[in-house]
Amino acid sequence: MLLAPFFVLFFIFTAFPVLMAFGLSFTYYNVLESPKWIGWENYATLFIKDEVFLIALKNTLLFALITGPLSYIACFLLAWLINELSPKIRTIVTLLFYAPSISGNVYLIWQVGFSGDSFGYVNAFLIKWGFILEPIQWLQDPKYMLIIIMIVQLWLSLGTAFLAFIAGLQSMDATLIEAGSIDGVKNRWQELWFITLPSMRPQLMFGAVMQITSSFAVADVATSMVGFPSPQYAAHTIVTHLNDFGTIRFEMGYACAIATVLFVIMLGSNMVIQWLLRKVGE
Amino acid sequence: MKLTIRLRREKKLNRSMPVDLIVFALLACSGAFMGIPFVFMISTALKPLDEMFLFPPTFIVRTPTLDNFYDLFLIFANSWVPLSRYLFNTFFVSFLGTAGHVILASMAAYPLAKLKIPGRNFLFTLVVLSLMFASQVTSIPNYLTISWMGLLNTYWALIFPAFATSLGLFLMKQFMEQIPDSLLEAAKIDGASEYRIFWQIVMPIVRPAWLTLIIFSFKGLWGTGSGSQGASYIYSEQLKTMDYAFSQILSGGFVRSGPMAAAALIMMTVPIAIFIFTQSNVIQTMSTSGMKD
């Protein structure tokens, strides 16, 4: 009985929608008329005709492959370093590092920093020190866009996983480390490799899920930093493509095909990473 | 007293001075990377208009003023939906959504963690799987479901989905697992019903976990409405949230970056304040967050 309220909503808003998206992805559906079965056509269009989707796929994979691992390592490394500090300072530093991920729209300040005229901080700095003569259009130039969004994304990425790592390190059994030093662990690297990492495996796996899922879902940051659609689709991602068809063009069937592809990619990579992490400790 | 001082002076295990310095340097660099945007933002929020167009731009504001905050309210004074309405919407959605989420997730977590009921492993596996994809995957079906239920353009379109966020259930269940069974059994022998055990024994023990759920859920709901999902669920101006209003009014224009920073500063205070008050509880909860094989 206690289970019912949560799980009814969970099925309505999370579990069934996945199946629904899968079902609708084989139809043409524009909300006004009832869905029309068209088989694999949406998927064929996606991968063969829709060049913008392929750009989006490429960008999304770039985000996931670069910001995903980087942010994961940063989460762990910083948590590990913070753990060396005294409790009072640790509390403050944790707040500082975690703050970006809970402070909503503050990331828009990066837009001011990378603003394309000479009043932007980055441009002004580079001009003043003689690296460049003309201001660079950071947020309009496809060359820089992706990198800047990645930096912002990294800045935002010390979230739930970071907290889980800090907590995991704090609750670690100190006697393990003492026992390790008797067994011949000499420095902090050995301690990290032989004692800390293995005993934190559950947190590491949880953190991986959090980081992977969010690194594939880049959209709002990109949209508000460089606009939608971004120049030459340089910052187009699967999720912005999905929103384009789902909330602007109302081609629900096609949008559901995009959602299904996204679902498969996210779940697939999570499964692979979980499997790998499980192997590491064995 | 003397003993503690001596213990602190003692060399820590497996640590060396040079590497400690590198650690400190690394922390300082990343601290700067994380912190400088905030300094920027506060400084931009306090800058008078003429100082925005100085070259080279000043990093720290010279003559701080509250003009930008004043401008922000002026912009709202001219919009036909008053500021107080947006504020009310945000608070209403955030509070109700968070409260409902904490209660429902705790209720569901208890049987999953402590009662031997058929299918509990299956349900929990579903929850774990749902952590592995982002909510954007279900955004289209959710939009359709919400419109079929007639909830489009009501607060409930934002609140109901927030009730059943799976991360909350996951964390709550993991935290409840560490409650010793003997405690619950003792209560049962004393004749307490499952409901009483849940409300009077389990819920007080898991206080750190619900504080954690509060910050996670609140943070999500507080910033809701400016993202593409929130915007499509609610189209009446008087039902929109603060976050949406800010992002609409302030989009575009360098001149607006002052009020933009002021708005972002106001918006961030609430979640940050909640986190400051709940931090130690959150850390305690997250230590049980691990995924077991």
Automatic annotation (TrEMBL), chain B:
It is found in: Cell membrane. It is a multi-pass membrane protein. SUPFAM superfamilies: MetI-like. The keyword Lipid biosynthesis does not apply. Residues 87-278 form the ABC transmembrane type-1 domain. The chain crosses the membrane at residues 21-46, 86-110, 122-143, 155-176, 197-218, 260-283. Keywords: Cell membrane, Membrane, Transmembrane, Transmembrane helix, Transport. The keyword Nucleus does not apply. Its main location: membrane. This is Carbohydrate ABC transporter permease. It comes from Paenibacillus mendelii. The lineage of its organism: Bacteria, Bacillati, Bacillota, Bacilli, Bacillales.
